[in-house]
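Hey, quick one: can you model this chain's 3D structure?
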Amino acid sequence: MRWLRPTACAATFSIAALSLGAAMVISGCAAIGLGTSAPAVPATAIEKLEYYQFQVKGYQNTYPHRTILILQPVDDRDFSRAGTPDHTALDGDPAVGISLGRSDEIVQRLYSAPLSGIVQKGIGFSAEEAGMAAMLGSEAAYSPGKPAVTDYVLASKITRGWVIKRRGPNGQYGPVWTTSADFALEITVYKPPFSVPFWQGTSDSVYNDPPIGSFGLGPEDEAGVYDDPGEVLSVAMTRAIAGIFQHQDLRALISQDVIQRR
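Sure thing. Here's the predicted structure for all 262 residues.
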């Protein structure tokens, strides 16, 4: 930024008005911000979010081989935990987090491709890990009364999805960074053609990198696993998606359900 020079405010005065002129010069230059600079504009970054297949263990092939249609998730996120009032999309890419500096100032705003398609594919992958056959739908809302294409239809809302990367004090190897991601979903499973939900539930995950209190070390000695905040948010998203099919009551309902084949 170019600094304003006092000479830009100066003028020629008569000797009789020298004192008054000097006062006017000082006050005038102060009014236009001599010696000040505009606050830095945060940088922006596009993060890659993805579902990490088979990262969550324990529920693979625990469901009967049924078919399920995955509708497009609705992005209905609550930003009360976001740490910033600005969640405006960037050229159609939704905001997914922020990076904070040493004094908790925002140094970078984080965006990603639209979440709906990413989460829909992730739910499809997770359903197939569970042992089901998944199809991806083009609609977001379930329409009861239509002829059944699959045994079940899954509708979802993304209620949380945010990541915050923070710079802490300098450690022995340089700045210490911590990243926290939060992701949550509301799920409704239908059995066509009925309008009453077959099952409803939620699934959420909070992931910290490095894990809080890991290895019993202090914050300055702990190192994160992931370099990019988008990877940390991807872990939280993966765990929230896999959590859908880890619900024992959903597994029991589908396992005991009798499918009438036509």
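One thing worth noting: Strands lie at 43-47, 67-70, 74-75, 95-100, 106-112, 133-136, 152-171, 174-190, 199-209.
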